[in-house]
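Follow-up to my earlier ticket, as requested here are the two runs.
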Amino acid sequence: MKIKQLSVFIENKEGRLKNALNVLSKENINIRALSVADSEKYGILRLIVNDNEKAKKALEKENLIVKETEVIVVGIPDKPNGLNHILEILEKDGINVEYIYAFVSTKADEAVVVMKIEDIEKGLKLLKEANSTILTRKDINNL
């Protein structure tokens, strides 16, 4: 299943990240996963939250640029080399991983990775055929 991730473009200045997170907090929006990629002038805050629509409206009200992107969220074994199995499935069929970030699951033996890949439909099909654990929005909210 595809998950909608929010990408928030933030000026790379002191306090800007905190301000964006405070906007979400004031709206009682729970962040399930996040990643920050930066450059000299701006950063991209990537978020998976419990309510995309509410989060997007709140952030845009503060004049932040917000885009939704489809990603795949996969449970992987929380052990050395656990991620490589998933990457091999995608690589075998020539699917490029554009970016990835991870977090630890509440399950003791599982980690969770968020992946943006070139061909999301084909990637999902391949991962399902390989019996990979694809997480739904509900799964993520229950972590």
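Run two:
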Amino acid sequence: MASSSYEKYDVRKRNPNPKVAALLVIDVQNYFSSIAQPILQNLLTTIRLCRRASIPVIFTRHSHKSPSDYGMLDEWWRGDLIFDGTPESHLMPELNPNAQDHVVHKNTYSAFRNTRLQEYLQERGVEELIVTGVMTNLCCETTARDAFVRGFRVFFSTDATGTSDPELHEATLKNLAYGFAYLVDCNRLEGGLFPNQQLT
């Protein structure tokens, strides 16, 4: 595999502790299907690995219910918003959440803003977050940074996050590796959670 530009910043190595970790799957909704499709198999592998390690899975859904919750997103994206209840707002069917999974509804980039995500995690003793989903440089990055400053140890997936441009993806990985998150991919995650075992 070709060398990635973020590798020189990826100097801190650590594996998630499944006893205190949770997986965040951010905004893998029909609206973002074209961006999510290229990473979908890696994302499903990551979910499968976490389920196997008894790591809870949390999905986020981004949508808006009224102009009162648009904030700056309406100005920035010129009205191209996801509205609650539309087919575009639904999670992609391939994710197939189960009854034990938790879904967080949000209306801005950070999954912590105006949600009870932090309280939900703290009530369950979660200290670490594995971040996956879309878009790498918007909701995933903002949530990862927010988690870090709130005191969570952050693991950020390089191959189960995606965005509209490879340059933006790489820029996020550089910044997060430099100051906010341990980088993981499917192979590193499997090796860390299941040393000397193979995924079946």
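The only thing I checked on run two: The first strand starts at residue 21 and ends at 26. Let me know what else you need.
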